[in-house]
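Lab meeting minutes (informal)
Scribe: AK
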Amino acid sequence: MGRLDGRVVIITGGARGQGEQEARLFVTEGARVVVGDVLDEQGEELAKELGHDSARYVHLDVSREADWAAAVTATKTAFGEVNGLVNNAGILRFHELVHTPLDEFQQIVQVNQVGVFLGIKAAAPEIAAAGGGSIVNTASYAGMTGMAYIGAYSATKHAVIGLTRVAALELAKQRVRVNAICPGAIDTAMSNPAQLDPGAAEADVAKGTRGLDSLYRKLVPLGRVGRPEEVARLALFLTAEEDSSYITGQPFVIDGGWLAGVSVL
């Protein structure tokens, strides 16, 4: 028996990184998943690997309301209902705040913030109609504190936590729980572009470094970068009704202790 037997969950940004690991874990735990992304080739390949009975891929630009409507329709057509949503899709750009172009700031807001809003708006009524379920929004360590050079990203992740709390209050009577996960440094292509460049990754190994681990070893109390499968397990906990049935409206930090403070040793 899996912890998500019989559940149907939409996962955005599901073609790679945290979303991919969430899709894999959820299927292992008995769920049927719809992988939404703009990376069509990778998304289709993942859905094919997971199996037609367990997964589908839909092209989903989370900033477009029409794409959300199509994704919900495709989910119901394939699997009959919607029981959960993981709003995982997001983008990250590095810029000093006063030098951030307006169009870049607005693009980040559209994906990271508006995308979560549209996901809740599209999926929550369907989850309620199916008898209740869970929405998990991906915020960030940077949504709990400030971080230089990612002002637009940090602003959107603070907003995601606010949206999570409001949605939890408004949807509680419909048996829809809404929580947020706040990852710290996680070794994915978004935060570690070297993953997309095998040559750079090989150079890291040759130099005795391990990607983000070399940067965060002194910053993070647990001494390493996080793994996307660790984030996936937190998303599973918040989606599984028997594990988190009395939890809603909360941000869950998963950062190896980074937010706890600064160690002098």
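Next up, CB showed the second protein from the same session:
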Amino acid sequence: MALTAVIAVGGNALIKDGRHTSFEDQYEAIVATSAHIVELISQGWRVVLVHGNGPQVGFSLQRSELARAVVEPVPMDAAVADTQGTMGYSFQQAIGNLLRQRQMDCGVATVLTQVEVDAHDAAFQNPTKPVGFFLDEATAQQRREQDGWQVMEDAGRGWRRVVASPKPLQILELTLIGQLVHSGACVVCAGGGGVPVVRTPEGYRGVAAVIDKDLTSSLLARQLRADLLLISTGVEKVCLHFGTPKQQELSRLTASQARQHLLEGHFKVGSMKPKIDAGLAFVEKSGGRIVITDAPNISRAVAGETGTEILPD
């Protein structure tokens, strides 16, 4: 029976630098990442791919801002859906082309995915996730007054809109995703952590929020009963004292050791902490395998040759 892997790829990994932000540049990066994913598929794995979209949502919102004198601006939830579509299209095409080159047309499908969050999640009372472009203070305050934005100054670089980052509760298209996976398809879904929606008496509606894609990946992997959750990031291995002379690479650690390192502050909120949190949730609630590494080492990490693996106690 084929094993199932949920792979989470960061949106920042698909933007090389500030000079390579075009659709063509991003597609080139997606093709490079897809080659490593196709290698896993060729080994017999069923793959579910979740991608980040932080920079891409920022670009979408900035285009909307520049055009707001001509057309209505794009709501936050719609911007997440937009990037799910465009990035899903790119991954679907890239993976499909690479599979066909290997004469392995197993099928690739992109599922526009809604993820339910709690309207009363504490994150909505304290939005902290910066999104979009930088503003001067006067414009930021104007948007606060006119559009109800939450804004904050961002590390001396200017003002930005901030939104909530609530926890994912339920993946609405889970049954469909599972059916596609069991049919043998490679599925691209829950891009950007999913389009955040809340339950109302009239049904679901989108909200201005951003869901952490690693937490959604962990939830998805648990609900699909996946054998592996692989989180692709910018480093080959998780490190203690990262970026200092005392830097120490970690190959394997238990869930308890990972929690202790979290308490000691080794993993920061904006970088490795969400990945460790997501990995712990998967390991402790499913008993599955979690591996963290960079895209070029995906196959080697799955084979146990590199990367960081978190094991149950």
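CB comment: The first helix runs from residue 23 to 42.
No objections, moving on.
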